[in-house]
Amino acid sequence: MSSRAEINAALAKLKKLAPAGYFIGLHIRFAAPLMQFQTYNKEWAQRYSERAYALRDPTIAWGFSTTGACRWSVLPIPDPFSILQDAADHGLHYGLVVAHGPIKSRTIAAFAHDKREFTDDEIDVISATLRRLHEITEPPESLTKAQQEALRCIAEGDRHAAAAAKLGITESAFKARLISARERLMARTTAEALQRAKDYRLL
């Protein structure tokens, strides 16, 4: 199974386990995740963003201070802005936060249920799945010279034919280098691959 297929399979599994939605921030560096996925309802997602809840969210504070999993109902972090109550008012009645990885590349995720607490078995499955997502989305430490050259050409605005001529290769060979770079960076598009290469400081 390819990394992309494995990511999609893991996300599908988590979606079934968290019927009220989830937010997953993978490899948080410099205060922002390198990859993120969320399935919360649109109203809550918009409210969370507009009110900048991420800056005050007790689940995120817990995730940066602790490794493991914790139900929202027993979270030992103050919630002076009543964010969890607001979440409940929007259908996220029960929840779970899971954190994994070193502090310099932390993965933090929140999962919600609308009817009941997550069971211990569900927490084990969710935690294991998140750890696997963290592993398979670990940013590469380097790109090949050919991959770097191809992405730099795109960054400089070259079209495929012009970039191929600049590098002294065929256009099909240039496209193959871009495909290779996208696969290594787990990006769907060349633009996404270029952005990730910059974010990972590989260019």
From TrEMBL:
Location of the HTH luxR-type domain: 140-197
Keyword Oxidoreductase listed: no
InterPro entries given in the database record: Sig_transdc_resp-reg_C-effctor, TF_LuxR_autoind-bd_dom, TF_LuxR_autoind-bd_dom_sf, Tscrpt_reg_LuxR_C, WH-like_DNA-bd_sf
GO biological process assignments: regulation of DNA-templated transcription
Keyword annotations of the record: DNA-binding, Transcription, Transcription regulation
Any one Pfam family match given in the protein's UniProt record, by short name: Autoind_bind
Keyword Transcription regulation recorded: yes
Any one GO molecular function term: DNA binding
Name of the protein described by the UniProt record: LuxR family transcriptional regulator
